[in-house]
Amino acid sequence: MTEAILLVGGKGTRLRPLTVHTPKPMVPAAGVPFLTHQLARARAAGVEHIVLATSYLAEVFEPYFGDGSSLGLHLEYVTEREPLGTGGAIRNVAAHLHSGPEEPVLIFNGDILTGLDIRSLVDTHRTSGADVSLHLTRVEDPRAFGLVPTDASGRVTAFLEKPQTPEEIVTDQINAGAYVFNRAVIDAIPSGRPVSVERETFPGLLDAGAHLQGMVDSTYWLDLGTPQAFVRGSADLVLGRAPSPAVPGRCGDRLILDGAEVAGDAKLTGGTVVGAGARIGAGARIAGSTVLEGAVVEPGAHIQDSLIGAGARIGARTVLAGAVIGDGAVVGADNELRDGIRVWCGARIPDAAVRFSSDE
Ligand code: GTP
Fold first, then answer.
1. What is the DSSP letter of 105?
2. Has this prediction a pTM greater than 0.90?
3. pLDDT in tens, 191-202
């Protein structure tokens, strides 16, 4: 197993920047662009050649990752003119693959953070003799996901759309966004038009009698589709719950990057990351949050489960919980912002302008 495709494109809100200017795959998670963790994990599993299939802002990846040699990888970039969907994107990079028809190619969705044992997925693929193998994860509430039931041997029996009624919840297994495809399956995807693997390729393969094998692996798994999930994922990388060789430093309660200034009595916990050149004032308490480079948190602010964009400023005694503050935004002193609020890049909230609790 030497090569993989990483899907980092598409359209829709999931791919919009997280209120910060940086495109999502490049937003730092535990101090490095999120994509670095996926690339480093693939490398650690023995992958040497990775093709990045992108459809937007491709120009941000190549200047940063280059030919991949700093990660011990050979990286190539392929940009779609129009988003081709997951299957179309995979087909579109086929000419860059070196594998023969019966050789396996790994494919990863670019917005999943997982502790998946990649080698074990490849082993499952080889021993089962499948055409495609999929990582499946179990979720508590499967209503928001397409379901992937399997038989006793792990062979996939169907791909079901999001369940609408309780009777339709026939399994708690969902597609976790990591696959092994035999090269021949990739070449058989129609080229030059949008194709969805979940809605077209996989059901079509099942109808044709192909062997799709599921590997249920209940390791760490997080879909980074929302900014809150992104902040959670970054904290879990720092805490070591989500394993990645690319975390720059020892895992622990906090990660403070070079050039950050943190006041002696500030309390940073729960996997908080403080980016380069950021400043944290006296008495600030920050838990499970990401403070991007150059941001300023003034004395006495309390921040939890929040993302503070690059160069943003959080005023003294302000309380943030589950908030996303865009790059360069200014939140004045004595505010309280909660529960999924997003402050747009460069916006300004005056002192004592917003509260949830009483004004005492
Ligand atoms: P389809 O299966 O094509 O309908 O996409 P989806 O909406 O089910 O995919 P989802 O949004 O879950 O994205 C899965 C992964 O594929 C993410 O990492 C996306 O960045 C990536 N992706 C989705 N659509 C495209 C696309 O058109 N081009 C590329 N290169 N990547 C895509």
1. E
2. yes
3. 999 999 999 999
For residue 10, the CA-to-ligand 1 centroid distance in Å is 5
Q: Is the CB of 35 under 6 A from ligand 1?
A: no
The tokens of 140 are what? 């508590």
**Architecture of 253-349 per CATH?**
3 Solenoid (2.160)
Looking at domain 3-223, its CATH architecture is: Alpha-Beta Complex (3.90)
89 lines ligand 1 (CB under 6 A): yes
What confidence tens digit (pLDDT) does each residue in 128-178 have?
Answer: 999 999 999 999 998 888 899 999 999 999 999 888 899 999 999 999 999
Which residue is associated with the tokens 């062979």?
155
| Closest to 106 in 3D by CA, of 118, 124, 94 | 118
Nearest to 18 by CA among 220, 208, 234: 234
Could you tell me the distance, in angstroms and rounded to a whole number, from the CA of residue 177 to the centre of ligand 1? 10
Residue 31: predicted pLDDT: 92
Domain boundaries, the chain: 3-223, 253-349
Ligand 1 atom 9: residue of nearest CA = 86
